[in-house]
User: What shape does this take?
Amino acid sequence: MTSSNSPEPQPKKTTYKRVLLKISGEALMGDQGFGLHPPTVQRVAQEVKSVHEMGVEICMVIGGGNVFRGLQGSAQGMERTTADYMGMLATVMNALAMQSALEGIGVFTRVISAIRMDEVCEPYIRRRAVRHLEKKRVCIFAAGTGNPYFTTDTAATLRANEMACEAIFKGTKVDGVYDKDPVKHADAKRYDEVSYDDVLAKRLGVMDASAIALARDNNLPIIVFSLDEPGGFKGILAGEGTYTKVRG
Assistant: This one.
């Protein structure tokens, strides 16, 4: 029998206090080829909640490729600026779905859009967003940077710097950065750590070049891990798990 004087178990200490989680829109599709898969959205929301309960302040940026991808629309003859704005609107849809899932499990969340649409989300105001984080609300940044020709990778790096995040967590389908596609090549080598310059020079595909350069210029580490591994996000914050760190 446990003594009444025994200390209560303490939550694991975290490596970071404020982070940005970047995931693709495709990560929310599940096994479908398009759109949102509600059980997958719920699973990701539970991952975020588990980290939030550790006291970590969380920002999120979600891509829109499960609904519409601007580059693909442009490649099919659509005017590039129009296609990019359509892609930005797709990210708002994903952000609202994630907000609904998070608030359904008790995590207060704000969707903050770079394109004003006051009926469904807040406009981006940096100081207000910082205040939300201080109040332990999850902030989901939608609509990219609000400008065409910039990806959600670049938006994630920009917002992470503006929010003074200590790292970007890039959730993918593999457990880190490899020298070649591990799905196609059994001898692919995973890096424990890799420099920004090597990511650019070797075209390792972590994020697009402008996002990597922005992270490098501001010394912002990028943690690449598998979003499909249950508890992976929480484990890394507790100093465990398998991942690749991109740093200078």
